[in-house]
Amino acid sequence: MPLVQTRGAASAQGFGEFAQAAVAANYIEEMFSTYLYDGNSSTQTIINGVDLSNKGGLVWAKNRTGANFHLLVDTVRGFNSEIYSNSTSAASTGGSDYTSWNTNGYSLGFISGNENLSGRNYVSWTFAKQPKFFDVVTYTGTGSNTTIAHSLGSVPGSIIVKRTDTTAAWAVYHRSLANTQYLVLNTTAAAATGATWWNSTTPTSSVFSLGTDASVNASGGTYVAYLFAHDAGGFGLTGTDNVISCGGYTGDGTANRAITLGYEPQWILWKNASNASGLSEENWQIYDTMRGWLGNATGTGGDSKYLQPNTSSAEGGENAIAITPTGIAVGRTSGSLTNRSGDTYIYIAIRRGPMKVPTLGTSVFSPVARTGTGATATVTSGFPVSSAWISSRTNTVSQGFQVYDRLRGANVRLSPPYTQQEYSTPTNELTGFDSNTSVTLGASTPDRLTNFSGETYINYFFQRAPGFFDEVCDSGTSGAKTITHNLGVAPELWFRKRRDSATYGNWYTYTSALGNTKYLILETTAAQATATADVWNLTTPTATTLYVGGDLNLFGGGAGIYVNYLFATCAGVSKVGSYTGTGTTLQIDCGFTAGARFVLIKRTDSTGDWFVWDSARGIVAGNDPYLLLNSTAAEVTSTDYVDTYSAGFEISSTAPAAINASAGTFIFLAIA
């Protein structure tokens, strides 16, 4: 009988002669990529995980640091047909920056500064052709009302059309507007009415309609259409998850207004479709998490980065649209440019990945031991870093671990040994998350926190991934509240920290081993404390929801902003657990096959530090260096408290009471 992939309760796909073979699941990380790279005026290969060779699709690229055109190339028209979203010009056929479509991305040559100029920074957005996500269609105009077949497999939420044989405006259909209306991608203009564009006909799951306007359907004219799905499902293990939404809203003038998508986005194309005030700044805007799109609870991280499809301008920054765990927040800037009362707004949003549960620890966690250079440095992680925990090993200036996050913004730190509020430094610590496989460190002078010349450091890099690790930023309210998260399972270890005040800045810690009636404090050695309803609201977190009470240390009278770090057991990747000490050698089985690369241990029934070990500094048969999350003390190198064990880690008989007291209780986090 065929194997059937299930999650949770048994599937209803049947057994024996009624069994159905599992259908391959689709995940957004295989269909869409935001990829950042540096130009080299030569050749290079972009490996972004999107199969353009077999699926086909679109690559949309922009020089972030210069005033070059937005360049769009797709697999249907081929390498030698480049079009520009900020221009009405016909497709350029004189050459191409692209040399091949690959099973995991594409390859570049060098023709112009639009795509690969040395010394410039670039972004490329890659869309794979995939039912219920995206499609590319080319056609020849008839000059008469007509329909064009597509393979989107659902009703398009938005369609962008460009004539390629001569100059013409970019025509945009969007489901939030009437089928008699259109927008123009290469201008700031408001939506206009014209029955000759879409023939006053709403598209279907198999065709879209065209009128007679030359921008979309001149006789003999050649065209390309990019089709975007809307809440069509088709993704995830069950095939029911949405990954793209083409929505709209009417501004109401309120601040920080929540727009619900049902998921956390990673990319958005946004436009004020009415522009009732006639403002020139009402450009089309693209935000994405790779370049720096910040979370909802405003901290000190600065502005989110945007590019404007209707202009050649370099990247700008603005605190206008923020990410939430379930959508976006608008109306965040002076004058409420993204939520002006009475204005109509439209967007195309794409879900954050990865959606797939990791199977290898190396794909989501990386410990890197290094020596500071005192100059800008790139530190390789192997994946897009969501959170970086960095400590000097000598702690010359007694600072301890520093925590930096993509959601809170580069150069913004929190420190587990302290209750202090979030601190934004100038340019000298962790200066950039804007890479697919690394982070950028500044000179770290004079604080020596991340990259001082000659200082030794340990860097822990984490990627948010289902079942392993998630991060949520939220704003406090008075009384109890719930917080949505995207871990996909109930968190077993949860750190909650206020970001804007030291007065109420304790690192409250929940662990499933103690339950919702107890808590720990990360910055102290204290044993478990009894929680009232004012802490976790005496409610166990679920696969979607966190619960907090009204304690001032959690809310600060309702004025605070917070960050939450969530960890869970992920088979073969991580283990959150507990054990009872024996005072003798103790093996902790985590279900791993090659041992733990990271171990965190804390005693809960009595006082004890938060010990951390890692394979980069050495988890070996001999001495194993450790640091303390709750302390600014230097690394201790002369002890042998943990040892290798293929299924997890081993605690040696020489370990002190803080790690292995007989009958003592302990919690741990281990990562393979």
Structural write-up:
By secondary structure, the protein is mainly beta. It folds into six domains: 31-128, no CATH class; 134-228, no CATH class; 244-351, no CATH class; 361-462, no CATH class; 469-567, no CATH class; 574-671, no CATH class. The chain contains five helices and 50 strands. The chain has a six-stranded antiparallel β-sheet with strand order 9-16-11-12-13-14. The longest helix has 4 residues, at 195-198. The chain is elongated, with a radius of gyration of 26 Å.
Mean residue pLDDT: 92
Integer count of domains: 6
Please give the share of residues in helix. under 10%
Which strands sit side by side, in order, in the main sheet?
9-16-11-12-13-14
* Alpha carbon gap, first and last residue: 33 Å
**Overall radius of gyration:** 26 Å
Strand content: 35-45%
Strand runs, count:
50
How would you classify the helix and strand content by structural class? mainly beta
Supply the number of helical segments.
Answer: 5
Which stretches are low in confidence, meaning pLDDT under 50 for 5 or more residues running? 1-21
Q: How would a crystallographer describe the biggest sheet? A: 6 strands, antiparallel
Assign an overall shape. elongated
